[in-house]
Amino acid sequence: MALAHPERRGTSSLNIGEVLAALAEEFPSMTASKIRFLEEKGLISPQRTPAGYRQYGEGDVERLRFVLALQRDQYLPLKVIKDYLDAIDRGERPENVPGGLTLAPRAVNDDVAAELGGNRARSLSEEQLRAESGASATLVETLVSYGLIASENGRFDEHALQVARACVQLESHGIEPRHLGPFRAAAEREFGLVERAVAPVASRRDEASRARTAETAREISDLCLTLHRALVHGRISRMEG
User: Fold this and answer.
1) Which of 45, 78, 155, 238 is the most buried (most CB within 10 A)?
2) Taking each helix axis from N to C terminus, what angle separates 32-40 and 16-23, rounded to the nearest 10 degrees?
3) Helix or strand or coil: residue 124?
4) Residue, of 116 and 169, whose pLDDT is higher
5) Domain enclosing residue 152, as ranges
């Protein structure tokens, strides 16, 4: 996907309603408030008329489509996406984001695309969960019983898939679900910390505030995970000495 620099947009001029229409098929839940929120975060910079009205070019629409696809498909924080776009705007061609993840939106088959349904969260049956994670029926049952994953009406989300994949790999190192209670407890404590931090914004019910709350929560969570990783890796590094 070509990502035009803000100063090298196409010549067409669209208002915010026309931008929403252009994105509607792939992102049916997109709203004007979310577009303004992404502008506030520096992901797009629409031109302004002398009267102050926003004018969007084709480059703005492509950048929006790119940002939304990465959020939906790879759960990347806006800061990571913005850093990548800023590098593109400087004429650089970075291939990866920090941590080695590829920024290209994840390729999915037709069945998965149907499940995604635009902006809707992915939903998997237990059979799909086992097939994609490599987990046995017994492992899935055990993960549910320990509260490490949960289903809603017999369906599992993408996070459950990530947990199952990790637990399959941990089993190969002799670490079983019964050993993982502290991870669940730590996750609940971390969520409580994040929830308290975003409470002042979370009380507002408008679309832009909800988007800002979710993004701030992700940023805080990423910082917590970075801290956790650094502390654990610091302990591991002492094993080498």
Assistant:
1) 78
2) 100
3) strand
4) 169
5) 123-178
